[in-house]
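[job 0412] stage=fold_complex status=start
inputs:
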Amino acid sequence: MTGIVRIAALAAVGLAAGAGLGGCGSPSEHRVGVTATDSSCRPATTELRAGRLTFAVTNKGTKTTELYLYAAGDKVMGEVENVGPGTTRNLTATVPAGDYQLACKPGMEGSGVRTDVHVSGGAM
Amino acid sequence: MIVRLLPNFLIGLREGLEASLVVSILVAYLVRTGRRRQLPPIWVGAAAAVGLSLAAGAGLQLTARSLSFRAQEGFGGVMSLVAVACVTWMIFWMRSQARNLKGDLQGRVDLALVGGGLALGTVAFLAVGREGLETALFVWSAVQAAGSGPAPVAGAFLGLGVAVVLAFLLYRQSVHLNLAVFFRVTGAALIVVVAGITAYALHDLQEAALVPGLHALAFDLSHIPHLGADSLLGTLLRGVFNLSPQYTWLQLAAFLGYLVPVMALFFRPQRPARSAVAADGPGPVRRPTEVHASR
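[job 0412] stage=fold_complex status=done
writing structure:
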């Protein structure tokens, strides 16, 4: 019983830590808008600087979508799901220089509508 | 309006069901066994999870930040695994109580429950909290979008509302079941739910690359019409049983690796209690020694 209570305390601390982290993101992080529709996935720019990136994806389609950032071999660098039509959600990931793909997945299925993005230079 | 309302409604429904069904079964169990005074810890646990999630979600979404992807997925995965442990404990705790319910043993049961309140509150907290952050982020994103149209926020809250109503109806239905049937049905259903949560947790951990095998798919039915994650059936399967139309091999192994042994343990013949549970309902002819051997 006490074990379970202890686990609960840990979980509560975890949730609270999650709340705390929200307030202290690095001010130098770069934000990139991404517009998703049922058939397209357009970042405001495809040339990005390495570091902590936040993609703010706005769903202008009619289906719920997800946004993935893939490295080579479809390694998941970041993902945000449950982007309902009309809403905007954020995907934050720390991204080193290299070639990546942004994938929007209208209907939250399949391999998605992909756009190549290039990340260069920049201090981590 | 409607094209934007429905998808948001389905997300709200799914997330709401994921959070509320385990709690509704727990509440039904306590009411059904005459322990309404054990309910407050459940409400406190659930409310704490909702409050913390909304606060954390607001801190992130409304300041346009997000946790790093790996942190969020890892957090969700670990929370889900802890929820698996707790709800499994709850299932077998309910089972062990099932045979002690009647007559002169009532006092002993109540004694055992003194410390049980905290444990029950914890189960409720985890059942609601494990997906709470994701739900809160979705809710806040819908609230934020209200400036450019009411459909997302209306859909989100309608979905959550319908989920709560469905959970309430489930509670209402289940408290009328014969007690022995109630224990079997809710126990078996919870085991399927928890097997689903186990697979779900592994998917989170695989996406966070804390566990390998994300692209080794056992099956993918998401392209089948009306089964995908954004369809009504897909929503209900995921919301009620945590089943997704696409599993990796590791998820499938975890699902079965939980489901089969736990189901077998749950339905294993149990030592007969000193007094019979069977007094509760008509049912087939039961001698006390057969009560728990009958499946």
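[job 0412] summary: The beta strands of chain B are 217-220, 246-248.
[job 0412] exit 0
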